[in-house]
Design a protein that fits this description.
- By secondary structure, the protein is mostly beta strands.
- The protein contains two helices and 14 strands; from the N terminus they run ββββββββββαβαβββ.
- The strands form three sheets. A five-stranded antiparallel β-sheet has the order 1-2-4-8-6, with no helix packed on it. Strands 3-10-9-5-7 form a five-stranded mixed β-sheet.
Length: 227
């Protein structure tokens, strides 16, 4: 028996990626970034390799996967060898999925006849700890500001915008993962802001929304897009 996982077809991931936001622990960094424990389970009826991969949707930085050997950006999982039948025992491959920094990532699995891909918001633990005070602006107001900022640019008109995720992060973490900076706030190392991941038919991007300080508009919003 396994907990609910993500995925489909012959392979599922069971672990931290089941949650809407993957929370990393600052004190557990390794050479490639911050690890999240994940168990990969493979249907015994599938015979053949499955390739895993992932990337940061803003920077393109790869996700690393660590099994029993050296970490890799495109590891291959192996289903049951041909001819072994269907014993009903799912193959289990424990691993760590290593993210280079906070941000939005895709993680995918590909096999001979198909694939699946998920988009996950990844943040450091202290920024999304249960019971922590939330951003000083409501989710609904921040969401509207992000959508308005993304559609008001006359050089890049957008249509059919979808919000893929909304996460709480510290201003420093959001600045680093989105690649844009808001004006310096009073306490940027602990203050939480909203970060949105948006998508339209032409591209994808992130927006940071924070409450304004004295002498600035009520909301500060900055967005960065990739095509």
């Amino acid at each position: 028996m396994f907990a609910d996982g993500i995925g489909g077809g012959p392979v599922y991931a069971v672990g931290l990626m089941d949650f809407a936001t993957v929370s990393l622990e600052n004190d557990r960094a390794v050479a490639q970034g911050w690890p999240a424990k994940e168990l990969w389970v493979i249907n015994p009826r599938y015979h053949g390799p499955i390739t895993l991969s992932g990337r940061n949707l803003v920077t393109g930085a790869p996700v690393w996967f660590s099994f029993s050997g050296p970490a890799s950006t495109h590891p291959k999982l192996n289903g049951s060898p041909p001819g072994t039948g269907t014993s009903g025992i799912w193959t289990q491959d424990p691993s760590y999925v290593v993210f280079p920094q906070a941000g939005c990532y895709t993680v995918s699995a590909r096999w001979s006849t198909g694939s699946w891909q998920v988009t996950k918001a990844v943040g450091y633990g202290p920024a999304v700890a249960p019971g922590a005070p939330g951003p000083e602006v409501s989710l609904a107001e921040a969401r509207q500001s992000a959508l308005t900022m993304s559609t008001d640019d006359p050089n890049q008109p957008r249509h059919r915008l979808n919000v893929l995720s909304a996460t709480e992060e510290t201003l420093a973490e959001a600045d680093a993962s989105v690649g844009v900076e808001l004006p310096v706030r009073t306490n940027p190392t602990s203050e939480l802001v909203w970060k949105f991941w948006l998508k339209d038919r032409r591209g994808e991007g992130s927006c940071i929304v924070a409450p304004g300080t004295l002498g600035t508009p009520r909301l500060q919003t900055a967005c960065s897009w990739v095509f």
